[in-house]
Design brief:
The chain is mainly beta. It has one domain (about 15-170): Jelly Rolls (Sandwich). The chain contains two helices and twelve strands. It has helices at about 15-25, 30-35; strands at about 40-45, 55-60, 65-70, 75-80, 85-90, 100, 110-115, 120, 125-130, 140-145, 150-155, 160-165. The strands form three sheets. The protein has a five-stranded antiparallel sheet with strand order 1-2-10-4-8, covered by helices on one side. A four-stranded antiparallel sheet has the order 3-11-12-6, with no helix packed on it. Strands 7-5-9 form a three-stranded antiparallel sheet, with no helix packed on it. A hairpin with a 5-residue loop joins strand 1 and strand 2 (about 55-60). The chain starts with 13 loop residues before the first helix and ends in a 6-residue tail after the last strand.
Length: about 170
């Protein structure tokens, strides 16, 4: 049994990551300390639980991440202010050996995450997160374990998902 109470695992569980980002999102002083830019996303790196990587992120109106995964890390995020939309795939996407993949019908999921709402996800999660508002910033808290080794970025046209690039930590931190 590991220190987190899960047989055979190490580091914080998805539930523990979600509890952490909920606490961060509820910290009004910390959320208010994040500088907001009208043109692009802003972020503040935080110490996450059990060696995890954590971020507080500001989202100007109309911004988003594009389709991506988290390089095999599990994670969680919670909206602290405003609202975010998540588009996700309810399918396990292979991590290697393909450049273009045709998705099956019915794999798309959409969630609206208003302030105080969040979700946890496993190591094979592919999604995009958007602030669809045309006038209001959003702020969210995120945590990942293990710390992100990479992020794969995808483009999507209909049911076709294409791997476009692989980013390493020095390219986004």
């Amino acid at each position: 049994m590991s220190a987190t109470g899960t047989p055979g695992s190490s580091g914080p569980t998805e539930a523990e990551l979600l509890a952490f980002v909920r606490r961060i999102a509820a910290d009004d002083a910390l959320v208010a300390s994040l500088p907001l830019d009208p043109e692009g996303r802003t972020w503040l790196r935080l110490e996450g639980p059990g060696g995890s990587e954590a971020w507080l992120i500001g989202w100007p109106p109309g911004t988003g991440t594009g389709w991506h995964d988290h390089g095999g890390s599990r994670g969680a995020f919670t909206t602290a202010r405003g609202a975010l939309t998540e588009h996700a795939l309810a399918a396990r996407i292979p991590t290697e050996g393909w450049k273009t993949l045709e998705l099956a019908d019915g794999v798309d999921r959409e969630r609206q995450l208003t302030a105080g709402n969040g979700r946890a996800f496993g190591p094979h999660h592919v999604h995009e997160v958007l602030n669809v508002s045309d006038s209001a910033h959003a702020v969210s808290a995120h945590a990942y374990y293990p710390p992100l080794p990479m992020m794969r970025r995808y483009s999507r046209t209909g049911l076709v998902l294409r791997l476009e690039e692989v980013e390493r930590p020095g390219e986004w931190a």
